[in-house]
Design goal:
mainly alpha; 9 helices; 73% helix; globular
């Protein structure tokens, strides 16, 4: 029964977090591209304000709207499947959750500038990144299971841990279902050692800072390119 509860808790938590990845891909990352298509981007570029503040506002709005869907999914899943959760460290759980969102939306802010540079490929890139990330980041099952598949599994884990959702989901699962066989992520070159929630929280902080820095850099490059070529706000490009 404990194993069954852990499995159901894993699926319910992954289903709740799906909403955030979809919002990052189809709203946050694609936002500047869609604004260009409807003719608003030139207004943003001319406005005397920080572009990071603009993207930050979009990210906060996306977090709030998506949280309603995610919380609803989580509550319904817990009630329907009678999932038992153990909140041994609620402060760490909240910290991991919010840092995961900051890192995820920082990644979305970075992708927003890149999608605008890549033009019409934005839709195809979002479609390409959707299901592979669901599969490899642990939305459907504990991602630590990849370690059982040797070199290929190790490569999958290395790719997956670059996505903030992977570390966030693994840490939250270990916190809400402590002591369960949740297949945590093994530490490379360390026999029998696994990533703990505390360590994953630290890694998420690093990812959050890195993605916010990259978002600022790509946005500055985008502004520089817009001044030099004057065509980024042209529609259908």
């Amino acid at each position: 029964m404990a194993n069954t509860n852990a499995l159901i808790a894993t699926v319910v938590l992954g289903g709740a977090m799906v909403a955030f990845w979809l919002n990052v891909l189809w709203s946050m990352a694609s936002q500047l591209y869609w604004e260009k298509e409807i003719g608003n981007l030139q207004l943003y570029m001319m406005a005397p304000m920080s572009r990071m503040a603009l993207l930050g506002g979009m990210a906060i709005g996306g977090m709030f709207m998506t949280s309603v869907r995610a919380i609803t999914t989580l509550v319904v899943g817990i009630l329907v499947f009678t999932v038992t959760l153990q909140l041994g460290n609620p402060l760490l759980l909240l910290g991991v959750f919010f840092v995961t969102l900051i890192a995820l939306y920082g990644m979305g802010m970075m992708l927003a500038s890149l999608y605008l540079l890549w033009g019409r490929e934005a839709f195809n890139l979002s479609a390409l990144l959707e299901e592979p990330i669901f599969f490899s980041s642990g939305f459907y099952f504990p991602v630590g299971g990849f370690a059982r598949f040797g070199t290929v599994g190790g490569a999958m884990l290395a790719f997956a841990t670059a996505i903030p959702a992977t570390l966030g989901l693994d840490a939250m699962r270990q916190i809400i279902v402590p002591g369960s066989p949740s297949l945590p992520i093994p530490i490379p070159w360390s026999q029998g050692a696994y990533l703990t929630p505390d360590l994953e929280f630290g890694l998420l902080l690093v990812l959050a800072v890195m993605f916010l820095f990259l978002a600022r850099y790509t946005l500055a490059y985008l502004e520089k390119l817009a001044r030099r070529e004057g065509r980024l706000t042209s529609r259908h490009q």
